[in-house]
Amino acid sequence: MASAIATKRLTRELKSLLKNPLQSPKITAQPNESNILEWYYVLEGDSDPTSPYHGGIYFGKLLFPKEYPYKPPGVLMLTPNGRFKPNRRLCLSMSDFHPESWNPMWSISTILTGLYSFMVEKTPTTGSVETSDDTKRKLAKESLDWNVREKIFCNLFPEYVEMWKEREEARKRMEAEALARGEVVEKKKAVANNSEGGMLGEGQAVVWQFVGGIVVAIMSILFAIRFI
């Protein structure tokens, strides 16, 4: 159970985040409705298209001790991302791995901004992994699909669920349009083949008519010579 000080501090920080949300990078955070010591966040990947995290939507968790803000929280990232092991406590200067370096003046905004800064680096630490940029890009592309399978994500961040629905609708429209274009191409090919077949048939008919005319003419000449 949270102490009165922790509850007061976390409530104040929630109000601050709602009033002044983090925009660069964009990070959203919400407490569990039944436990103010358990917070969840969504961190959007780098806006730079060349970044391996571009387009990623990363879902994670902060576990605050009842003594907060005098003790640091546990920091975890849940979405597979290629930088951190999913659902593992991370060794950061502002996490519970290093209580000696914790500053009670730091806030949730400080923690999450620091997490983002460490994420885009390549410094190894407890809880980190090494993967290729291609793997990170693949996971970034799949991140929102993974998140919407988590009930707590859908409950706390419905705006991202709507984003996923819009993406799915756009994807289905593109697939339908591609299928329609494919059908049109096939129909055009069929029409072209039929036209070629028709032209070939007409050509053959003309040839046979010409040959038939020659045969009739020759027979007429032979018949006439016979009676001379």
Automatic annotation (TrEMBL):
<keyword id="KW-0812">Transmembrane</keyword>
<dbReference type="Pfam" id="PF00179">
    <property type="entry name" value="UQ_con"/>
</dbReference>
<feature type="transmembrane region" description="Helical">
    <location>
        <begin position="206"/>
        <end position="225"/>
    </location>
</feature>
<dbReference type="GO" id="GO:0061631">
    <property type="term" value="F:ubiquitin conjugating enzyme activity"/>
</dbReference>
<keyword id="KW-0547">Nucleotide-binding</keyword>
<dbReference type="GO" id="GO:0005789">
    <property type="term" value="C:endoplasmic reticulum membrane"/>
</dbReference>
<protein>
    <recommendedName>
        <fullName>E2 ubiquitin-conjugating enzyme</fullName>
        <ecNumber>2.3.2.23</ecNumber>
    </recommendedName>
</protein>
<keyword id="KW-0067">ATP-binding</keyword>
<dbReference type="InterPro" id="IPR016135">
    <property type="entry name" value="UBQ-conjugating_enzyme/RWD"/>
</dbReference>
<dbReference type="InterPro" id="IPR000608">
    <property type="entry name" value="UBC"/>
</dbReference>
<keyword id="KW-0833">Ubl conjugation pathway</keyword>
<keyword id="KW-0256">Endoplasmic reticulum</keyword>
<keyword id="KW-1133">Transmembrane helix</keyword>
<keyword id="KW-0472">Membrane</keyword>
<dbReference type="InterPro" id="IPR050113">
    <property type="entry name" value="Ub_conjugating_enzyme"/>
</dbReference>
<dbReference type="GO" id="GO:0005524">
    <property type="term" value="F:ATP binding"/>
</dbReference>
<keyword id="KW-0808">Transferase</keyword>
<feature type="domain" description="UBC core">
    <location>
        <begin position="5"/>
        <end position="157"/>
    </location>
</feature>
